[in-house]
Amino acid sequence: MKKGSNIGSCRFCGQNVMLEDGAGMTAPQLEEAATMRCECEEATKYQESANRRTLAKQRIDELFGKDAGEFRQPEEVKAIMINVVDAICDKKMKAATITVRTGLACRIMQMAKDKIKVVREISNNNEYVQ
Ligand SMILES: [Zn+2]
Hints:
With 130 residues, the chain is an alpha+beta fold. The protein has helices at residues 27-37, 41-64, 75-89, and strands spanning 6-9, 16-19, 95-101, 104-110, 116-122. 38% of the residues lie in helices and 22% in strands. The longest helix has 24 residues, at 41-64. The structure holds zinc ion. Zinc ion (ZN) binds at residues 10, 12-13, 15, 38, 40, 43.
């Protein structure tokens, strides 16, 4: 075995996967890394779902993170949005709208085929509803 590498096994099919950077990993990290590289059907589905989760979190960062200009939110607010992404990915909920302030909201929802959509909703109307 190459120096710095280690072997992990896929969580679903048990196949061993050589991990080049596996030497410093804990057992759960080895399993996760092996599962992320395995090509069996269950692992492929898991990878797609993990990637969707990562992409949705990146999207929150784009829309409300440090480069979002006037829409930038403090970490506490972003943490709530990220928790919503996790809850939706874990199928504990379907959708949520986080109203940051009047006229600015983040809507996170599960779409067809388990896709996750993150949108920034801005409304500039000055109408007041009594
Ligand atoms: Zn597998």
